[in-house]
Amino acid sequence: MNELSEFQSRSQESLEKIEIELLLQGIYAWCGYDYRGYSYNSIKRRIWHRIHAEGLTSISGLQEKVLHDPYYLKRLLGDFSINVTEMFRNPSFFLDFREKVVPMLRTYPTIRIWHAGCSTGEEVYSMAILLQEEGIYDKTKIYATDINSEVLKAAKTGLFPLDAMRKYTNNYIKGGGRRAFSDYYKATAQGVKFHSSLTKNVIFAQHNLVTDQSFNEFNVILCRNVLIYFNKPLQEQVHELFYRSLGTFGVLGLGESETLTNMKQAGCYEEIAGYQKLYRKIK
């Protein structure tokens, strides 16, 4: 590559970054949704996916559409949401939760759990099943939040694809499940519908981890496989939110690729199950 080609390549990358920054700033200023602290490479991929899906050719072209047409905005925000999930995802996490966290929760008169970034609700239903089997669901209130109102609507229905049940059943068994997994749902024409008893103590609500504040004190906060999409300053900000929201000896659960290491709040926790990213707040 000659010097001119190298210059043009660097210039194109710089221009692309400026356009992305302007798009994200415009969305924040116009709508209040703040994606400026998300991982740059992740957000860039999602922007270009939407550009191609809409038949556009540039980031600036997408910005014009997004700021003037709410349907374009809705579709782009949907792309920005992280909705990759499954029931009893990483089963060993749920097994450790049963064995190492539940005994502590049994000692509490009431339990408050926050599923932050709950997506379409698979892990919320998983936790409800676990708590029912451990006999502590009736004294528990689960707050399931996400930035995306559409995935929250899906979560409330309790409907999931039939073809996912084999994998979910295997996860459930590996996670220490004590019954037949099929006891918790019935097949319908629309898919598999989980029993409404699993959500009788669940509150689904919209919440933005980037811009919204703490809204309660919790015994457990689960935010798994969300922070990996944030840059370091935003991860620090969200960890501060979680720290303020946890009561003393409260439990924080992260995803397998996430960690408290190098976070300023790290010294305020001790590991319950380090490999499974379960931590207890100690100060």
TrEMBL record:
It comes from the Bacteria. Pfam families: CheR, CheR_N. This is Protein-glutamate O-methyltransferase CheR. GO terms for biological process: methylation. The keyword Nuclease does not apply. The keyword Methyltransferase applies. InterPro entries: Bact_Chemotaxis_MeTrfase, CheR_C, CheR_MeTrfase, CheR_N, SAM-dependent_MTases_sf. Residues 8-282 form the CheR-type methyltransferase domain. GO terms for molecular function: S-adenosylmethionine-dependent methyltransferase activity. Keywords: Methyltransferase, Transferase. Gene3D superfamilies: Vaccinia Virus protein VP39 (3.40.50.150).
